């Protein structure tokens, strides 16, 4: 990759300035336009350099992201199982309307997302505000609260959760101290999803860090001004902190909703890959996996993937639309 | 520190004596410590359960085992078709490949986006940002078909090659943000001194990017080590199982028999993440705070 160095040492030799990209053949201009040529050759050298720096990403974008996206869209109109496929038009999409398990999966995913995300963000915001007071030992608390969100996605934690909420698990052992006989939470259709929601809330650490960073950005003078005007603690929170934090709240909300629609591992492990009991933890992603990689009905699974993408896109768009009414970006004038 | 209002009841602060403030602060810490305890108690419980005799795990919510059963670790280590180091090794191979891939390919793309002018830069940048949000579920099936046709299913390639091609666009974004913060004069000085684009990238930008590279390496480690979905799909061969897959196998095969050993191996699986958490917390917190992704 020394082409550029060569080109810099001898700037007139423009063709050597092209790094090994796809067939670098620039037409050499006439000698009478030497000055402009140099300017143009620098620009074209920069372009070739950019292309070579971007080439791994571009190849990945085409071969691993955009190509498969197009293929996935096509597959969703076929009856495809490895090595064999047949165009069936909109049949996969029509089938969705007569698939009660899919309807259930949408419901389970929606309940999970719309219960766990607000709870998680509320916990994150509360702790961020408490920790932002600059108490001694703040770094220590921050670490403890942050740790679960690093570990939360792992299989080991899902295994732990399954036992903590098992018939004889930690939760029931603690309840027994108070004389309460607990259920087998993960194996009960009414409660299994609840344990997953608690697991999601447990990982509030990363939005908390984002809130903390946002709180740091609020200028102290606003609080001082509010204080002089006689605002109490509560009023300062409602009239200063909250409005100035709304962009961060919005950001976390968008991000967490997108993430939680895609949750997979915890539900898979806690239900032994079956989405049970009684499909009560059957997320859309689990159903997609079941259809695509267990039944090998990849056409239908692709259609489900596009349904998932559409749902996420719709809720993200709604989020942005509604943000006009509550997100405060300050006065930029 | 800045005095930030909280919903905590402390209305008449001005009239408080230092003594009541001290008591209040003490109570405040007490509540925080209690909350922190609730948060990490399940982890401590699992750690202690991994050292407890079997009949004690589901009988006593306390943390101190009546006898220390180190044998749980030995049992768990050898409970599966391969000794556990085999799964750790497999995970490490994938992790190492992923880290290398992300560091090289994402930093290259980031340098181009942050410093070079080229046609369609704005559009490509927007596409790059869009791919961060793209659910893996939308592309996983055609990817599987592609890698299956290449004969790569049941190899590590489907897990490493995408990283070599910078598909973790999040890290490109992280590094673009970082590089934009570096003074442009450095590039100009390097160019006057005879550095080409590659020279500037390698000798000027990369050394200054160390914090961003460290964040990338740590996050890649944690995500890849924790990753379950793609490993579940691409690795079915018993010889290629990774730590998460081995744990799942362990859980499904033992049913409800040897919990101590299962917990022991879960602790082993969490160990490296915990280590990186302790060592690299600074980078993790900065990475989250500047880009907002966990």
Describe this structure in words.
- The complex is a heterodimer of chains A (333) and B (294).
- Chain A is mainly α.
- Helix content of chain A is 68%, strand content 0%.
- The longest helix of chain A is centred in the first third of the chain and has 42 residues, at 34-75.
- The relative contact order of chain A is 0.10.
- Chain B has 294 residues and is mainly alpha-helical.
- Chain B has 2 domains: 18-76, no CATH class; 84-291, MetI-like (MetI-like fold).
- Chain B contains 14 helices and no strands.
- In chain B, helix 3 (71-77) crosses helix 14 (259-291), helix 4 (84-115) runs parallel beside helix 7 and helix 4 crosses helix 11.
- Chain B: The chain crosses the membrane at residues 26-47, 87-113, 125-147, 159-179, 200-225, 259-279.
- Chain B: Pfam families: BPD_transp_1.
- Chain B: This is Carbohydrate ABC transporter permease.
